[in-house]
UniProtKB/TrEMBL annotation:
Protein name: Cytochrome ubiquinol oxidase subunit I
GO terms, biological process: aerobic electron transport chain
Family of this protein: Belongs to the cytochrome ubiquinol oxidase subunit 1 family.
UniProt KW keywords: Cell membrane, Electron transport, Heme, Iron, Membrane, Metal-binding, Transmembrane, Transmembrane helix, Transport
Origin: domain of life: Bacteria
Membrane topology, record value: Multi-pass membrane protein
Length: 470
């Protein structure tokens, strides 16, 4: 029989596994919904059928990704009551209403207009359909708003009072709970990451079809739009990431120590460790490649500014340094690679070679999954860096888990792994199959409208039958 620590580890692995699968799809659908709104808006404004073809091409992909995001999100949320019942009981009065607001606003908004968006092109006016598309795009943002507010409160809890039974209760103002210190930074950084994720996915599809046929006008347009997004948004994202890092240094300094690999304090300026192997046993980074004092310059804007290290933190309060250290470098490295692709595309565009440089297309194709990898690496940095706390500084992860036996958690984890890989592998394969087909003029829509399951079925005359067919 596994001991209590193993039960906690299994519960953490299960949540990490399900949230990683789930986060991939909203990161794509948030950006893709906005891209669809832009495409439909350009079609209405210019009248060019090319934009309508691209809208219909990506609408089918959005429908599958959105559905998988909803399904994985519903499954993931049940774990709050199964594996993390103590956390749900103690933090429920604060995070419960926030998650309910997400359902009452974002989910209802998306669900209310999604059918019109998918099947209403031929059934409602153009402006009404565009409004539905914008509502779905707005709903994805509102959903991110509430979920990130919950997560940010767990990182930087404010606006609460402690109840007599040990519960976290909302204080005088919900504004203090919602707009906690890290929330604005995390919201902007995460949503921008979603837009970049979509841009590089769209750019990779455009590059794939340009490598097969450089004369494909639809592939040219989607590749051009994606590269504009990469060139303009990637540098903004780097600046937002820097601001988010400074906010983290202020409110969660231990997380930054782990990200930087600073096992010891540096009273006269800390180096920036580019690469190395964290050695938590010996409290050092082996084979470190570092730039002297650069970390102090980045974090404090002063080469000689002192920075505290993990030697000032009790061992039981340290996060797993190796995971945080490398996840952070994967995220940052991919961010600068995205910036490089964006700058490369500007050079190609300035020389009139955006659709001719095959090596740019190959690089964009390779970078297609980069956004998904970067958002997962960023999420790992955020969540593992918060450990050993569920609510930072107030409630430990070890004190948040349900009193379950290890076999129960292991069985559900195994079931999740089997079902997720079976279901979502098929869904991902289908999305890739849709992407493999080149966009073309007169692109078909999302498919047939839903079959009626209730109500009055139209008679033959209403379906367009010829007189006498009845």
């Amino acid at each position: 029989m596994l001991d209590t620590a193993d039960v906690l580890l299994l519960a953490r692995i299960q949540f990490a596994f399900t949230v990683s699968f789930h986060f991939i799809f909203p990161a794509f659908s948030i950006g893709l919904a906005s891209y669809l709104a832009v495409l439909e808006g350009l079609w209405l404004r210019t009248g060019k059928a090319l934009y309508l073809d691209l809208f219909r091409y990506w609408l089918k992909i959005f429908a599958v990704a959105f559905a998988m995001g909803v399904v994985s999100g519903i499954v993931m949320s049940y774990q709050f009551g199964t594996n993390w019942a103590v956390f749900s009981d103690r933090a429920g009065p604060v995070i419960g209403p926030l998650m309910a607001y997400e359902v009452l606003t974002a989910f209802f908004l998306e669900a209310g207009f999604l059918g019109v968006m998918l099947f209403g092109m031929e059934r409602v006016g153009r402006k009404l359909h565009f409004a539905a598309t914008c509502m779905v795009a707005g709903g994805t943002f509102v959903s991110a708003f509430w979920i990130l507010s919950v997560n940010s409160w767990m990182q930087t809890p404010t606006g609460y009072v402690m109840g007599a039974n040990g519960q976290f209760l909302p204080g005088e103002s919900w504004i203090d709970v919602i707009f906690n210190p890290s929330f604005p930074y995390r919201l902007l950084h995460t949503v921008t990451a979603a837009y970049l994720t979509t841009a590089f996915a769209v750019g990779a599809v455009g590059a794939w079809h340009l490598l097969r046929d450089r004369t494909n006008l639809h592939a040219r347009k989607m590749f051009s739009m994606a590269m504009w997004m990469a060139a303009l948004v990637a540098p903004v994202q780097i600046l937002l990431g820097d601001a988010h890092g400074l906010n983290t240094l202020e409110h969660q300094p231990v997380k930054v120590m782990a990200m930087e690999g600073h096992y010891r304090s540096h009273p006269e300026g800390a180096p920036l460790i580019l690469f190395g192997i964290p050695n938590s046993k010996e409290k050092r980074v082996d084979y470190a490649l570092e730039v002297p004092k650069l970390s102090s310059l980045i974090l404090k804007h002063d080469l000689d500014a002192p920075l505290k290290g993990l030697d000032t933190v009790p061992d039981e309060d340290e996060p797993p340094v190796g995971v945080v250290f490398w996840a952070f470098r994967v995220m940052v490295g991919l961010g600068f690679a995205m910036l490089g692709i964006g700058l490369w595309s500007l050079v190609a565009r300035s020389r009139g070679k955006l659709y001719e440089w095959a090596w740019l297309h190959r690089a964009a194709l390779v970078m297609g999954p980069s956004g998904f990898v970067a958002v997962i690496a960023g999420w790992i940095t955020t969540e593992v860096g918060r450990q050993p706390w569920t609510i930072y500084g107030l409630l430990r992860t070890a004190d948040s888990a349900s009193p379950l036996d290890a076999p129960a958690v292991a069985a559900s984890l195994l079931a999740f792994i089997v079902v997720y890989f079976a279901v979502f592998s098929v869904g991902t394969w289908y999305i890739l199959r849709l992407m493999n087909k080149p966009p073309h003029p007169h692109e078909s829509g999302a498919g047939q409208a839903p079959i009626r399951t209730a109500g009055i079925t139209p008679g033959p005359a209403q379906r367009g039958a010829a007189p006498g067919e009845e």
